[in-house]
Amino acid sequence: MFAFDPYSPVVDADPFPFYKTLRDEHPCFWSPQAGMWVLSRYSDIVSAGQNWQVYSSAKGNLMTELPNRAGATLGTTDPPRHDRLRGLIQYAFMKRTLEALADPIRDIARSTAQALRGKDRFDFIEDFSSKFTVRVLFAALGLPLGDEQTVRDKAVLMVQSDPHTRAKGPEHIAAYNWMQDYASNVIAERRANPQNDLISHFSMAGIDGDRLDEREVLLTTTTLTMAGIESLGGFMSMFAFNLADYKEARQAVVANPELLPDAIEESLRFNTSAQRFRRCLQKDLTLHGQTMREGDFVCLAYGSGNRDERQYPDPDVYDITRKPRGHLGFGGGVHACLGTAIARLAVKIAFDEFHKVVPSYRRTQEQLAWMPSSTFRSPMLLELAVH
Amino acid sequence: MVSIIYVEPSGKSHAVNVEEGWSLMQGATANGVDGIVGECGGSCACGTCHCYIEESRFAELPAPSAGEVDLLDTVAAELKPNSRLACQVQATAGLEGLVVTLPATQG
Ligand code: HEM
Fold it and tell me: Which family is it part of (chain A) (predicted)?
């Protein structure tokens, strides 16, 4: 009997064989372990992402949702509320606005990379990507410096889930609560001393003349910090993982950094770090002969859609010349990632500077320790040896 | 499926069967049509899926949202009365055969 358990460490390590069976044999699959349906084909996922009226996010979008978050953030509201909330924040993450951040991001990348000079092996995550991402996110959100390392550690913990209980464990909830307290202090501080930054504007904004609900301000700030730091750091480790393994791709982007954007897109497709999100059905729906009921949860397996041979020929080949347009690495539709432009900009600059110091590297460990998470996929540690 | 005719900047046209409910942007990017980027993934946040709708049928489309109107002001190519963002137009049966022309640049 085929089973798909997004809490299984085997799925954390390598979900792709499961996805292939799902796509070919069970394109609309009930997973008792997840307690939800799983959609795995590219076209079904695009259709669902487009149809927010039926596939609602208002009951939460993380596979294992954090308590009391649903309904108060961008990822967990539906239009029209979602669009108004997004309208308040979006300008800060638009490509044009971000141009001003390119130089500060480059400085951060350069100094973080410099610290690696002379090392013959190091943990890419501890020694580079996490240091880089927190500093970039702190700059983008205008967070006060001082707590970067703790904020990063809590962000990574709060997206995890316990493989045994198939729920958030006490340590994950504690990290989430810590992050809320942290966000609440920043908000209070910015209200007392407003700056020209995102959180100052957002914490005093309103929709249609109404002040934002306090829970929205708090949880949106909490989620932005989590999404920004964890998603960006997680993807960077997946990108380094691919470049360490695929020597020719690495040599190509080192020789010509202009190829980095294409390589980034291919890694977003090939090793999707944001693997699975969920929706809640607003009416009964029959798909591939299965009837799903109103109120059922449905998993959109972006990581599977990105390997669907019906959309991408030779999907299991890593090919930086592929230009995989329409990939689902950032999701799609109204809930497509808010951070696409800053993520692309930051990763490109980070690897450009990283490669100036460390142009040639390989993985030291055959087996990696993967993060226990039903939503995200990335290694906990990525030791690289310098050639 | 809804047949949409995309005209690329080179003048080459493609008739593509787009799933009902998909946006005109997704119909193009998933089927290898050139001249459209869709950088933000369809969340109406970038203005890189600018297109021109067949003039005689423009009025058949639901009106753009305020967010789309704001972004249309930022598109790279010439803004025309029949300009829309392709991610904000859904393929519906009524649009069968619609001609969608893509501009020379998306910026
Ligand atoms: C490479 C890095 C990143 C990846 C792979 C990624 C991936 C994703 C994905 C797949 C979604 C869709 C979730 C769903 O369908 O429910 C999403 C949504 C979101 N992301 Fe990202 N993300 C990244 C970086 C960032 C950054 C840097 C930020 C913030 C600064 C961010 C903020 C958000 C927010 C707020 C949403 C919810 C948007 C909405 O529902 O309107 N992400 N992200």
Answer: Belongs to the cytochrome P450 family.
